[in-house]
C-alpha cells in the first residue's frame, strides 16, 4: 500500500527548502503531488518571510509596453501565433513607444518592459535605436526587453545600446513537453542557449513557464524547478495557461490558480532574491489573483502601459484583462489594493539586489 505523505513530512520538506534553497527532484515532486491547504499556507508564510528579508513590504512596478503583435513563430498555445489570421496585427512607432514611457514616468514607473512577438520588422538596429532613445530620455530608468530568441551578437548589441534586463520564458524544461507546445523549428536547446548567452552578457535575466499547460505533468514542473535552480535567473515569471479560441489548444483546460500560487511559493524559497511578478494571467483567471500572488511570494506587478487603442489586440489568451487595475492608468487603485494587504508599490528601478 502506498502511504500518503503526512503533514509533518510535508512541513519538514518545506523547512528543508527554506533552509537549503533546494530539494532533490523526488522531494519537489512529493511536495507538489501531496500538497493541501495546510502545507500551502505554511509554504506561503515561509515565502513571505524570506521575501521580507530582502525586500520588506515593497512591491516593484514595471510598465509593460506591448509594442508589436506580429510574430514569425507558431507556438501552439499563443494567440498571436503566425497562423492566427483572426489577430489584428499592429506595431507601435518609436514615437508611440516613447510617449508610453513618458506617460509611465509621470505615473511613477522606473522600468519599461518592451514586449512583442518575434517581429522581423524590428531589426536589431531599430531595437537599439528605441533602447537608446528611452535611456537618453529617462536615464534613471531600466529598460527590459522581451522579444524572443536572437543570436548572441544581437543580444550583445541590445546590451551595448543600454538595455538592462531581458525576459525569455523557457516555457517548460522537459524536451518532450517542449516539443508538444512548439512548432518543430523551435527547440529547448536553442532556448537554453539564449538564456545562457543573456546571463553571460550581463543582462538581469528572466525566465519562467506556464502552469497547467497542455500535457504538463508533475515531472515537468520538477524539471522546471531544477532548471531554475541551475540557471539562477534574476527574474521568474509564471502564470496559468489560459486557452485562446484561435489556437489548436482552444479546448484544453485552463491551468489552476491554486497550483500557480503553490509554484510561486516554491520558486520564492528556491531563489530567495528573485524578482517574481504576480502576472496578468493570474489576475485574469481570478479576481484578486495578483494580490494572492503577492501573498504567495511574488514581489513585482507589471501594469499595462500600451496605448488603449491596441490593448485589446495583444491577446495571448482569452479574456485577457486590459483596462482595470492592471492598467498603468489605474495605478492608484493598484496601490490601494496592495496597501490593503500590507504592501507598498514603490517608485524605483527595482534592480536585483547585489550581494
Ligand atoms: N496562456 C497563458 N500564458 C500564455 N503565454 C502565451 N500564451 C499563453 C496562454 N495561452 C505566455 C508565455 C509567454 C508569455 C509572454 O506569455 O509563457 O512566454
Task: Please characterize this protein's 3D structure.
This protein is an alpha/beta fold and 355 residues long. It has a single domain (4-346), classed as TIM Barrel, CATH 3.20.20. The protein is built from 14 helices and 9 strands. The chain has helices at 7-20, 25-33, 37-55, 94-107, 124-137, 152-161, 175-181, 188-201, 218-231, 257-270, 280-285, 289-295, 308-311, 331-340; strands at 58-61, 63-68, 111-116, 142-146, 165-167, 204-211, 235-240, 300-301, 344-346. It has a 6-stranded parallel β-sheet with strand order 2-3-4-5-6-7. It has a 3-stranded parallel β-sheet with strand order 8-1-9, covered by helices on one side. Helix 6 links the parallel strand 4 (142-146) and strand 5. Helix 1 (7-20) runs parallel beside helix 3 (37-55) and helix 2 (25-33) crosses helix 9. The termini are far apart. The mean pLDDT is 95. The chain binds 5'-deoxyadenosine. 5'-deoxyadenosine binds at residues 77-78, 169, 171, 210, 239, 241-242, 244, 281, 316-317.
- CATH architecture identity: Alpha-Beta Barrel
Order of helices and strands: HHHEEHEHEHEHHEHEHHHEHHE
Strand order of the largest sheet: 2-3-4-5-6-7
**Largest beta-sheet details:** 6 strands, parallel
Form type = globular
Q: Give me the CATH superfamily.
A: Aldolase class I
Structural class: alpha/beta
Distance between the termini: 48 Å
**Mean pLDDT, rounded to whole units?**
95
Amino acid at each position: 500500500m502506498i502511504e500518503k505523505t503526512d503533514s509533518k513530512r510535508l512541513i519538514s520538506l518545506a523547512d528543508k527548502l527554506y533552509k537549503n534553497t533546494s530539494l532533490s527532484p523526488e522531494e519537489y515532486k512529493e511536495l507538489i503531488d501531496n500538497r493541501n491547504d495546510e502545507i500551502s499556507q505554511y509554504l506561503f508564510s515561509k515565502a513571505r518571510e524570506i521575501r521580507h528579508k530582502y525586500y520588506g513590504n515593497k512591491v516593484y512596478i514595471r510598465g509593460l509596453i506591448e509594442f508589436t503583435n506580429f510574430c514569425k513563430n507558431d507556438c501552439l498555445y499563443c494567440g498571436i501565433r503566425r497562423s492566427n489570421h483572426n489577430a489584428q496585427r499592429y506595431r507601435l512607432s518609436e514615437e508611440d513607444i516613447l510617449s508610453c514611457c513618458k506617460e509611465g514616468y509621470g505615473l511613477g514607473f522606473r522600468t519599461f518592459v518592451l514586449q512583442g512577438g518575434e517581429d522581423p520588422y524590428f531589426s536589431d538596429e531599430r531595437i537599439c535605436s528605441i533602447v537608446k532613445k528611452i535611456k537618453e530620455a529617462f536615464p534613471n530608468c531600466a529598460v527590459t526587453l522581451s522579444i524572443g530568441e536572437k543570436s548572441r551578437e544581437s543580444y550583445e548589441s541590445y546590451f551595448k545600446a543600454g538595455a538592462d534586463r531581458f525576459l525569455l520564458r523557457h516555457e517548460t524544461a522537459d524536451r518532450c513537453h517542449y516539443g508538444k507546445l512548439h512548432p518543430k523549428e523551435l527547440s529547448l536547446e536553442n532556448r537554453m542557449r539564449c538564456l545562457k548567452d543573456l546571463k553571460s552578457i550581463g543582462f538581469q535575466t528572466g525566465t519562467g513557464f506556464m502552469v497547467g499547460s497542455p500535457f504538463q505533468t508533475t515531472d515537468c514542473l520538477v524539471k522546471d524547478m531544477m532548471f531554475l535552480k541551475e540557471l539562477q535567473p534574476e527574474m521568474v515569471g509564471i502564470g496559468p495557461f489560459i486557452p485562446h479560441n484561435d489556437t489548436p489548444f482552444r479546448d484544453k483546460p485552463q491551468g489552476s490558480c491554486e497550483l500557480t500560487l503553490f509554484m510561486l511559493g516554491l520558486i520564492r524559497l528556491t531563489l530567495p532574491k528573485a524578482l517574481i511578478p504576480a502576472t496578468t494571467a493570474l489576475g485574469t483567471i481570478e479576481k484578486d489573483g495578483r494580490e494572492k500572488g503577492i501573498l504567495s511570494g511574488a514581489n513585482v506587478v507589471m501594469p499595462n502601459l500600451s496605448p488603449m487603442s491596441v490593448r485589446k489586440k495583444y491577446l495571448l489568451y482569452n479574456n485577457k484583462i486590459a483596462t482595470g487595475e492592471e492598467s498603468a492608468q489605474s495605478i492608484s487603485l493598484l496601490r490601494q489594493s496592495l496597501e490593503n494587504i500590507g504592501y507598498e508599490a514603490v517608485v524605483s528601478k527595482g534592480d536585483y539586489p547585489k550581494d
